[in-house]
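Quick look at the format.
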Amino acid sequence: GRHAARVDFRTVGDYYEVADQTTGEASVTIAGALIVNKFNAGSYMLKRIIGAASDGSYGSENTLEYLGLELPEWGDHQTNYVLDPWSRIKTLANVNRLVFNPDRPSGSGQALSSLYENYFTGYGTSTANWKFAPGLGERVGDWYRIGYTKENTVSKTEQSPYINTGVVFKAVYVPKKYIAYNPATGNNTEQAGADGNAFTFFSFGDVIYGSIEAAMTAFSGNGTNVVTYNFAGKTWGDVKALAEGMKKNDPTGYNRYLNRQMKDKDTASKLTEAEAALLDWNNYMYATFGYSTNTDGTPAINLNGKDTRRLLARYALHTYANGICYYTHWIRHSNNNHPSKGIMEYAIVRNNVYKLHIRNIHGLGKDIPYEPPFDPDPEDPDEPTPPDPPGPDDPDDPDDPDNPGLNIEIEVIVKPWEGLPDETLYF
């Protein structure tokens, strides 16, 4: 028997029509697929099965069987476990501990990520690090073959995005309409999408904007238009009035920036030319985020060596360069059809083909599959800082696999992997 499993997917058609209540209508095309947390350490020569205790944890050693059957044989969700050599130490408590060794299950000294390829939280802060093979994979009938992975199982309570195997789908999302900023009037208008062609857009509070100016203008409401505010000839008192009149927690951190700049300044004193330039919205956006707008009003990002998306994500403003978004699906082996995690619910077992059928897409994906935690802002000791990075017992949870709000609907069919002697396995 094979020690590996195969993962395939298919789409319903060339594109999906989204009718989202908040973000509005869009069309979405799947552009790539990648297995994440692809288990790459060893497998037992023979499949091992162990019973489950009454609380759903691993049963006693006397329930261990070689080449045993997953139970029940037909129908309902699973009642016993398949064990891989690392199953017992792949725990949430061990996520940040150096207790793993991909060459020896009893060894240690390495991170959990050493057992995997394409480790989900290991890609850093830039979407450029998320590399997808061109195209959708090898086509076999209606299905595309994403790739292969080894057996990866864990007890019910330890199932998580740090341990289980998933697939990230890369997609192109084209909104049918969005909010655009009109520089001539300083107002926003609703605009139709670009004839199905992909374009760069932003989302804030589930609304889609064609530029950051549009997001900022919508946020400011009837307040002063900070986008066009002219600081020439103004005093620090004017700056203070502007900042105090703004709503807090704006999508670009501009209010915090103004407050920082005017610290310890004399409100009566006039701004120098250099100070006025420094405070200007356009300069702030370029210097801080590498963001600007082209003469036709379309956004320009990643200028000046900056990663615009990552820098804005801190403020919950999300950047979709050329309309690219991501949907992550955690692969189910035995669905218990219940919100709580079941025995062997998320798992990969040897000699199976996991066939993921993308039935529907209900909304916008993420601007990066996994957003690493943000460092506390060093320049701002007075502000409440974001929480500390998670301790070993408290991994920050990238989307819980059971969270239904992931905007993609996938039916999983698990089939025994038959024959196909000519199939070459690539790891």
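Next, a different chain entirely:
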Amino acid sequence: MLLPSFPVTATDFTLATRNGDYLEEISKDPLIYRGYWSARTIVSLLEISDKLLPKFSEIKVPFFIAHGDEDKICHLDGSKKFYELSRSSDKTLKVYSGGYHSLHWEPDGMGTEVLEAIVKWLEERIES
């Protein structure tokens, strides 16, 4: 790679959630990286994505995916593709209208709704 350390883009935390309180909280967190993503990091993510896609059909374990349809960090199409290609007989894809990336932090009750759906899904499988 010609310029592996070349800064490509910075993380825009406003894409994570509509929850202003949470955004303010993470803006003060010293452990959160705020720098630029390097070209090497971006290329590595793309390469691993290409390697993972053919493996989706090998997934047979139960899983639950919660995805916001307004997520600008991870595209909904990726979750849909994973769901469609997996061979699990017990799989759930729940799409939250208006939800951003960090669904558990979303305001207006959505975060609570997401967490309750996850707990319910787990409890149904623990009991059976």
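The helical segments are 20-27, 39-52, 76-85, 110-127.

See the schema section for token definitions.
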